[in-house]
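CORE FACILITY INTAKE
Project code: CF-77B
Contact: R.S. (postdoc)
Sample description: multi-component assembly, two entities in total
Requested service: structural model of the whole complex
Turnaround: standard
Below are the sequence entries exactly as provided by the requester. Do not edit them.
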Amino acid sequence: MASKAKATSGSTGHKTPKPAKGSARPGMYRASTIYKAPRALPVSQLPAQFGRADLEFIGIDHSGATYEARVYVNNPKANADTQTTLANGYAGSYYIFGHGGCFGDLGHCDIPQKQDAFDRRPSHPLEPLRKVVIATEAIKQAAAKSSEIHITVVPLIMSWTEKTDLKDVMRFDHINLVTYD
Amino acid sequence: MASLIVRKNVDNLDAAELAALRTGYTKAQAIMDNRGYNHFAGLHGIPNWYCWHHDHTTGSTVNANLFLPWHRAYLLSFERAIRDQSPATPKVGLPWWDWSSATSHSNGVPKAFSDATAGGKANPLLRARIFAPTATPPIDRQTRRFPGNPAQLPTAAKITNLLNLGTFNDFSNQLENIHDFIHGWTGGNNGSIGGDMSSLATAAWDPIFYSHHCMIDRLWYVWQSKHGINNIPASLLPLVLTPFNMKVQDVLSINALGYEYAVSFVTL
């Protein structure tokens, strides 16, 4: 399954986010946008047997705040206050150690294209990331109970600088669900 | 024959070792040239951005996961700089912070890094001056740290599961995810602003950065002991770890680099 997230532009300006209540840890703050994968995966498309199931997050922006992304399977109502338990469909979290905003001159944080085939400079530090959440138990549980797999991702802000946009901290291109023997 | 540098758990350093470490940090923090703390901290994020996190492409087609070897080389250079400023005896290596230990789960940040003073002077392991005049805007202030709830730190069971992962990329990616959490946890926020350990731009100025990464490096060493010292994609071996003048193949053996990890070390 490949799900595409909507691109979010985010806004400039800094505003302290609201603290998350309940199960969120002290000091964690709720972000404004919870991601729900636009398409569900029919369980019939999963192999009958698999030893491991990964949710791969592709093209993650890590230029801004530091945050936790909590991944839930088949819990479309999950939010910052949802307990991180398997019963709630919690699959795991990925964490982004954010760059904290741009501390260089104009253009410093733009990701350049290679000039040509002879340009051997390493890729820009802000090249989008790939993160893997090992989600085997949550996927197996969902497959046993439902005919579809829905993914919800809830961001919680852990830390920020005076330069970070706090409106849309979590941005990625899409999610892959990959199973292994 | 030269003896190996012994890196210990910070909670196991005796008073003399801790004092020697603090002397090294204090003197290095006072030096503003390329021997000093400010220079080395500036290699990671602001202003030089040499740090390597997650997969990146190099000048070749290799999609390189150099997080572990780059930070191993970085710690090595930093450790030598601190030892240059440390007393002749006792000679100490960088200590690691075991954030999965029962002590850390009870106390959070180790006392060595949270005491306000040591020996009647400001504790150089609590905070350091960030001097980054070429940043936009320029930065000249002390580091800040707002650690979270100790109960949220990774458990020993989580580390056991991590060490059982069989391939280098899988192990490195999952370890890096834990690493990212620790950065966020340690820097935290006070409701108005975040701490420096949580921002890649300034994390390496917080003195605890190096002991956090010492734990990361140690876990790689423990994993290598289980799964093979050369268990790393061959395509990574010739890649250069800038700016340390080393390649990945040069940093696979910690003994060859002149150090080891020890829970305890007693001379009889």
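Facility notes:
- The first strand of chain B starts at residue 5 and ends at 7.
- Residues 162 and 225 of chain B are 14 Å apart (CA to CA).
Invoice: internal transfer
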